[in-house]
Amino acid sequence: MAPGGVRPPHTSDATSQLSRTDLPRINKGGRGDALNAKLNDHIRKKNEKPTITIKPGKNIPTGDWATEFQTEIGIIVRKFAPWSTRPKWKSIGKSDLRKFYDLILEKFTIDLHVVLIQKAVNTMLANEYRQFRCTLHKHYLQYKQNGTERENPHHQVKLEDWEKLCTWFEYDEFQTSSTQGKKSREANTTIHCTGSKPFARYREEMCDPETGEVV
């Protein structure tokens, strides 16, 4: 294990738990199922999970299932992030990461033993974490104006978690960092995505499959 990495769950089998290909557990129905219907239908019909690869030098996957992988990352963060106790990504611990990894591996085959791949996945998780927290903050501000923010939790957050988030949003520390973050975003004019596809995927699709050169 590389320094600073997360040790994979222990397994006595020759096949690593982080690259297992057994049929995953699928929950019937639910919002997550609907959001990633193509992925879940594929797993049910084919009895196999898509394989995800992240090329050296890249921090996101490219290929047929890249969009579904990103969607699943978002679903996992929204449903299972410990919002009530760790609203900041930097507070996320190794046990939290292992839980996220296990949930990813229920739907995809990906070798999280590879340090570069693990770091790329961590970056994707962190981005989704921060983006959804921003969504929660906007929801909070919507009701803050008339003082009913605690009575109107976001529909994807439990009431007890929402109450603790409201308290956290009120902290001066968050208000200061939120203002600084807004100024930074306004100053950043570089566009990294076009529609739902990141530029890395467009670049891959423009490459000659034999030479790797952009055509």
UniProtKB/TrEMBL annotation:
UniProt name for this protein: Uncharacterized protein
Region Disordered: start-end pairs: 1-35
Organism: Papaver somniferum (Opium poppy)
Lineage, highest ranks first: Eukaryota, Viridiplantae, Streptophyta, Embryophyta, Tracheophyta
PANTHER family listed in its UniProt record: OS12G0282400 PROTEIN-RELATED, TRANSPOSASE, PTTA_EN_SPM, PLANT
